[in-house]
From TrEMBL:
Residues 169-332 form the Lactate/malate dehydrogenase C-terminal domain. This is Malate dehydrogenase. Substrate binds at residues 103, 109, 141, 175. The active site is at residue 199.
Length: 337
């Protein structure tokens, strides 16, 4: 019951709030690469429940048929498709990638790079071949480096479209909304905090000055809140004591982002989410900013917007880290043997 109240019930509310279609009426094919993992399984369930999804294809290196069989018993019109990588990705409208090794205590996101980079490279190569027009939402860490890997693979295949490749940073927004709501003692559904930059450590930059509703924290509170948001992933890793990293909250955040991608594909207006994309807005070649989503992915990049002095300093500190992270991804593909 606790999982239902914390994860499933809020997502049902999210779908009901934004959806006017019934399952199968105007649906999309969604493929999840990494479907049997700690994020993949709850994410697959949430996608099976989403009324925008008419076909859900799953891929992972093991246990995928069991996950698919389990999901197929859920009473929605969405059908569960094949588990082979090329068949799963073929002609998908949206591809969500939680594949890879999770972070463990003492590990940074950068420690994951050598393991996860090759996994994502192979998935990107398959997507370039069988689903070049898909919107690709990347969860695999380190996102700051993995998104450039996918883009470089697409460039080599002459299939690159910067409007269609996203690093999912939604968990940073979800956490910011939750933590601010806790401080203000209000409903987190009433809070919206844009988060820009990247998706690791000090590259995560919550724009508390642009929070809705407006907040009036002291300088000390702003610093403390910013640091908590930036280190929230480590908070979960340590709390799980070796049992993994954020899975349920990440699955919820990814489902929210995928829902917004599909709302954009349906032609809904003013669908806005923050995401880490190829960009010339932030001083690095990839940067997370608020985006207007549409039928081709990114309809408009809203940029950094107005920042206060504290936020400007946070951006300045993040840029060299992002540049280094991005270059690691680019070099991995260009130097791959």
């Amino acid at each position: 019951m606790k999982i239902f109240s914390q994860v499933i019930k809020p997502f049902i509310h999210l779908c009901n709030r934004f959806s006017s279609c019934k399952g199968g009426e105007e649906g999309f094919k969604v493929a999840i690469a990494g479907a049997s993992g700690g994020i993949g399984q709850p994410l697959s369930m949430l996608m099976k429940m989403n009324p925008f999804v008419k076909e859900l294809s799953l891929f992972d290196l093991q246990h995928t048929p069991g996950v698919a069989a389990d999901l197929s018993h859920i009473e929605t019109l969405c059908k569960v498709g094949p588990d082979q990588i090329y068949k799963a990705l073929k002609d998908a409208n949206v591809i969500i990638v939680p594949a890879g090794v999770p972070r463990k205590p003492g590990m940074t996101r950068d420690d994951l790079f050598n393991v996860n980079a090759n996994i994502v490279k192979e998935l990107a190569e398959a997507a370039a071949e069988v689903a070049p027009k898909a919107l690709i939402a990347i969860i695999t860490n380190p996102v700051n480096s993995v998104v450039p890997i996918v883009c470089e693979v697409m460039k080599k295949a002459d299939k690159f479209d910067p409007k269609r490749i996203f690093g999912v940073t939604t968990l940073d927004i979800v956490r910011s909304n939750t933590f601010v709501a806790e401080a203000l003692k209000i409903n987190p559904k009433e809070v919206n905090v844009p988060v820009i930059g990247g998706h690791a450590g000090n590259t995560i930059i919550p724009l508390l000055s642009r929070s809705t509703p407006r907040v009036s924290f002291s300088d000390e509170q702003i610093i403390a809140m910013t640091k908590r948001i930036q280190n929230a992933g480590t908070e979960v890793v340590e709390a799980k004591a070796g049992a993994g990293s954020a899975t349920l909250s990440m699955a919820y955040a990814a489902a929210r982002f995928a829902n917004s991608l599909m709302r954009g594909l349906r032609g809904e207006q003013n669908v806005i989410e923050c995401s880490y994309v190829a960009s010339d807005c932030g001083g690095a070649s990839y940067f997370a900013t608020p985006l207007v989503l549409g039928k081709d992915g990114v309809k408009e990049n809203l940029g950094l917007g107005e920042l206060n002095d504290f936020e400007k300093k946070e951006v300045e500190a993040a840029i060299p880290v992002l540049i280094e992270n991005i270059q690691a991804g680019v070099d991995f593909v260009n130097n791959f043997k």
